[in-house]
């Protein structure tokens, strides 16, 4: 089943990247009042503006990536019963589903 997860994960990552780009453009426009964020090689922009834009963009992309990866893993577990990532031994290990089933740490029911 983990083999089937890979192509779905790749597709979700591509769509997540597009979503993150769109979110960043909207956030930058609201924050800076400009349609485009400064490029690192733009001589007319200062260090602070370039670094703030890069930091914001990185944070948005990391957040969206984590949400997409986690959502794909949870969806895979719901469909197949198998956790595709680390600690995919069927026990809770911090995922939301273990808590929803009333499991304690270690996979036993309360």
Task: Write up this protein.
The protein has 110 residues and is an all-alpha fold. It has one domain. Helices cover 64% and strands 0% of the residues. It is built from three helices and no strands. Helix 1 (2-32) runs antiparallel to helix 2 (47-80). The two termini are 29 Å apart.
The CA-CA distance between the termini, in Å, is: 29 Å
In the predicted model, the low-confidence regions spanning at least 5 consecutive residues are: 97-110
Shape, please?
A: elongated
Mean pLDDT: 84
The beta-strand count equals 0
Strand % is under 5%
- Tally of alpha and pi helices: 3
The helix-and-strand class reads: mainly alpha
Radius of gyration: 19 Å
Number of domains: 1
Q: H/E element string?
A: HHH
